[in-house]
Specification:
The complex is a heterodimer of chains A (90) and B (271). Chain A has 90 residues and is α+β, with helices and mostly antiparallel strands. Chain A is built from two helices and three strands, in the order ααβββ. The radius of gyration of chain A is 19 Å and the shape is elongated. In chain B, strand 3 and strand 4 form a beta hairpin. Chain B is globular and about 65 Å long. Classes of the chains: A alpha+beta (90), B alpha/beta (271). Chains A and B meet through helix 1 and strand 1 of A and helix 11 of B. Bound molecules: adenosine-5'-triphosphate and magnesium ion.
């Protein structure tokens, strides 16, 4: 076992703690009601749907919930036009 | 057509989720397309073990209920290109999964992926039965301990009776994966031996995963142990088990601990 290993051993618990804090904060907040990122996702898609028909096969939504910052990425392909990637942080 | 493998146990907390992540990642690293499906509705954890908990948008129940497409719900692993996760839902409604819905999802996954690993919830109820329903093979996770082996036996009974394959008179391949094996305790005769477990269950052995701090550290970091620390003993055991699952004929070496000096001096006997 090297000194590096010892160091690694010490650092995994704080990572676990930080991951859990972020996750549980989100899960507690969103219990029963959707969180801001989900609301934005729904509303943005609704606005797009007013103008073009959204083909679910050409829609990818990804989120990354962070402690102080979350990202929401909506990647949607609109037929006969170029794909319009919308990326926003919220 | 891909293979559907259920990771099951009956008893809770024996290492199903850990094993699903470690085996799935090990297979995906060889370039195979792998999907991990969390069936633990209401108590999902595979996302956490995979380090994808912040990226969950949709889940298995959304796909079954038609609010999301399968392609939208699958989360691609950030480390291994060919590895995907389908999270379970956190709903408290245990009936959110329908057999028909699960069947459709599994068939779609089977047509796209080389391997589909289903992480079963504990118990022998509906959730566990749905997780195994469409499986071609089963990895039965067992700790070398009486209640775990007993529950494994019940699960084997279910696999032979309640799966689609069993109902159609087809064979469902079964493998025992012994986890949390403590070589020191085994040497002192405080744990069921591997031979005992295999003789009682009469199912071939997929591998023996040692009890290891590395596993805990990997789950703290949100990475399957086979990805984060592939050279550690537990990771190596998982990597070899994955190769056996793919059909390679690798001998299993029982982790071995030399009797301690004190043990020999005192001539300690089995518990
Ligand atoms: N080889 C191992 N060495 C040490 N700890 C382990 C090992 N395998 C699993 N564990 C630990 O055992 C605990 C239970 O593991 P895991 O969540 O994978 O079990 P499970 O069978 O999925 O549980 P459940 O029935 O609740 O779904 C976890 O804390 C995990 O870190
Ligand atoms: Mg589990």
């Amino acid at each position: 076992m090297s000194i590096l290993d010892l160091f690694k051993r010490r650092t995994s618990a704080p990572v676990a703690r930080e991951r859990l804090q972020v996750l549980l904060a989100y899960e507690r907040r969103s219990r029963g009601q959707p969180d801001l990122v989900s609301i934005l996702r729904e509303e943005i898609l609704a606005v797009i749907a007013k103008h073009v028909q959204i083909d679910q096969d050409y829609l990818q939504v990804s989120m990354d919930r962070g402690e102080t910052m979350s990202t929401l990425e909506i990647d949607i392909q609109i037929p006969n036009k170029s794909a319009v990637p919308l990326a926003m942080a919220g | 057509m891909g293979k559907v493998v259920v990771v099951t146990s009956g008893k809770g907390g024996v290492g199903k989720t850990t094993s699903t992540a470690a085996l799935g990642a090990a297979v995906a690293k060889t370039g195979k397309k792998v999907a991990l499906v969390d069936f633990d509705v209401g108590l999902r954890n595979l996302d956490l073990i995979m380090g994808a908990e912040r990226r969950v948008v949709f889940d298995l129940v959304n796909v079954i209920q038609g609010t999301a497409k399968l392609s939208q719900a699958l989360i691609r692993d950030k480390r291994v290109e060919t590895l995907f996760l389908l999270p379970a839902s956190q709903t408290r409604d245990k009936d959110a999964l329908t057999e028909e819905g699960v069947g459709e999802v599994i068939e779609k996954l089977r047509s796209v992926f080389d391997y589909v690993f289903c992480d079963s919830p504990a118990g022998i109820e509906r959730g566990a039965q749905l997780a195994m329903r469409f499986a071609d093979e089963a990895v039965i996770v067992t700790n070398p301990e009486v209640s775990s082996v007993r529950d494994s036996d019940r699960i084997i009974g279910l696999l032979d009776a309640r799966t689609m394959r069993a109902e159609h008179g087809e064979h469902i391949a079964k493998h025992v994966l012994v986890t949390r094996y403590d070589a020191a305790r085994a040497a002192r005769g405080e744990m069921l031996s591997i031979d005992d477990v295999l003789e009682i269950l009469s199912v071939p052995l997929l591998g023996i995963i040692p009890e290891s701090q590395d596993v805990l550290r990997a789950s703290n970091l949100g990475s399957p142990v086979t990805l984060s620390e592939p050279l550690n003993a537990a990771a190596k055991a998982y990597l070899e088990s994955a190769r056996r699952l793919e059909g390679e004929d690798l001998p299993v070496v029982v982790p071995f601990e030399r009797k301690g000096f004190l043990d020999r001096l005192l001539g300690r006997r089995a518990a």
